[in-house]
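A.,

Following up on our hallway conversation. Structure tokens first:
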């Protein structure tokens, strides 16, 4: 699938500011960036590699007060939508360096609190079938409610409240899969099926010696998503981190199949 991505942001800062951006679809396995362009106004830009070698991040030094960003890209998604049930999980001693860090609890994913629950509810299945069962349980038991959480909401609050937005679904997915001793990491993506259109967060799980995308909201399939960034949780994949207070004046994300 080929998708077109159009992003426009306008933020205002009280003083000169440095922001950290993760906006551009990554040139990574399973997707090819056919063309792309980003405009960052009069900001001074420094690029660095993304977490786990996926994509790039941008340090933008904004003289202030207004920060206007436009980003356009066409991305060819080449990965398959492989059924999770056909995949196996590695024993702990065989999990490699690139996947091992994503077994651990993190700031928003307190996976150590879910061990007993995951064992009791999903202990009868293993490998990709267990991941699929966890995904289905989350999709069936959570309600997608825009505005129901904020940047401080952690996975325990999401589990108790049974509602959230994509970041909350992904946090719960990561936490439960890690509790099942399968590596899981948070992924920022663009997808044409996201409703309402916005930046989107999903999960990657380590099965059959590779990363596989899983969207617990049910909005996007692996063969329709463009990966932007990966990390332990939402703290690592935020589209913008600001050193100063930021006021959003305008924000638009549009993704469509072409």
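Then the amino acids I'd put at each of the 258 positions:
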């Amino acid at each position: 699938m080929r998708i077109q991505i159009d992003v426009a942001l306008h933020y205002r800062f009280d003083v000169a500011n440095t922001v950290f951006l993760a906006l551009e679809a990554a040139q990574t396995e399973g997707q090819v960036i056919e063309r792309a362009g980003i405009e960052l106004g009069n900001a001074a830009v420094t690029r660095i590699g993304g977490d786990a070698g996926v994509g790039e991040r941008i340090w933008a030094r904004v003289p202030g007060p207004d920060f206007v960003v436009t980003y356009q890209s066409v991305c060819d998604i080449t990965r398959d939508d492989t059924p999770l049930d056909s995949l196996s999980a590695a024993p702990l001693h065989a999990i490699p360096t690139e996947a091992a860090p994503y077994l651990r609890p993190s700031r928003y994913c307190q996976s150590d609190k879910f061990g007993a629950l995951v064992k009791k509810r999903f202990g009868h299945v293993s490998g990709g079938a267990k991941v699929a069962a966890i995904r289905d349980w989350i999709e069936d038991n959570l309600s997608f409610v825009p505005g129901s959480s904020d940047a401080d909401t952690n996975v325990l609050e999401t589990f108790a409240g049974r509602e959230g937005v994509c970041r909350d679904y992904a946090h719960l997915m990561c936490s439960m899969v890690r509790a099942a001793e399968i590596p899981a990491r948070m992924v920022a993506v663009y997808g044409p099926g996201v409703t309402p259109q916005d930046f989107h967060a999903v999960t990657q799980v380590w099965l059959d010696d590779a990363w596989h995308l899983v969207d617990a909201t049910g909005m996007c399939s692996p063969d329709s998503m463009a990966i932007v960034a990966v990390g332990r949780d939402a703290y690592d994949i935020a589209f913008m981190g600001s050193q100063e207070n930021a006021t959003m004046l305008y924000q638009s994300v549009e993704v469509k199949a072409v």
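The longest helix spans residues 127-141. Curious whether your intuition agrees with the design.

B.
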